[in-house]
Design a protein that fits this description.
MaoC-like_dom (chains A, B), 6 strands, about 150 residues, 4 helices, elongated, alpha+beta, Thiol Ester Dehydrase, Chain A, homodimer, 6-stranded antiparallel sheet
Chain lengths: ~150, ~150
């Protein structure tokens, strides 16, 4: 268990690197069957003739795996609570991919109405085993001062 | 099966409304165990003392359910292929929620390099049974001319 980090402990430029996550054909299809049952996420053969030219994970699957890796790599006090953000998928993730996430605090915006809180802008890149960026997420995350706890 | 819509068939202001999706405590916990194992998504009792004051679905779970509803309500030819977008969660989704998605085409940007393609800006609001907006997603989606197919 990493030590919980409060707003007082954080500064712009702080970086966090996650563990690795092994994707697979079965995981891609299982997520797709439940949440994104499109042919390029569900069927290797039929996926060949689509935009993706082969089986690719749903972008929301990549986002969910990223969240899992963030819960293990961003030890923020009170948890990772996101108000929203901007997400981009420059490349799809594939069955053989081994993914990891690099996060950097880009900005710390103190709350005007709540002196014990701030909004962090955290940029998280999800990379594959070739270090290609498959997803870029800039999330607005809540951070709390120690006194608040 | 709805008729597939090509770029030629779409215009700014077109709207699409999805079916309803019933959330549940078990679905919230199941998603959370795999992708977002934080206490406010996993344990009703412990969630009471957190920011969310009760069990809430992961934002990425809400996003994934939204995607499922979009695959059923946006009949775009060649599927729903997203380059990215902006996502915000004004309210968490809860075990009893019945969710649906209203989508509107806000902008159509023809591709400069690929005359058969355009990027659609599609705003999708995910609402609960009280018609409260729980998620707002503005996605960049690919659209193709009929000739391309």
């Amino acid at each position: 268990m990493k030590q919980a980090l409060y707003l007082d402990d954080l500064k712009v430029g702080d970086t966090f690197v996650s563990e690795r996550y092994q994707l697979s054909t079965e995981k891609i299809k299982e997520f797709a069957r439940e949440f994104d049952p499109q042919v390029f996420h569900c069927d290797e053969q039929l996926a060949e003739d689509t935009f993706f030219k082969g089986l690719a994970a749903s972008g929301w699957h990549t986002a969910s795996i990223t969240m899992k890796l963030l819960t293990e790599s961003l030890p923020f006090a009170h948890g990772i609570i996101g108000a929203g953000g901007e997400i981009n998928w420059p490349l799809p993730t594939r069955p053989d991919d081994i993914l990891y996430v690099k996060s950097t605090i880009k900005e710390i915006k103190p709350s005007k109405s709540k002196p014990n809180q701030a909004l962090l802008l955290v940029e998280s890149e999800t990379l594959n085993q070739k270090n290609e960026v498959c997803q870029k997420l800039t999330a607005k995350l809540l951070s709390f001062r120690k006194s608040e706890g």
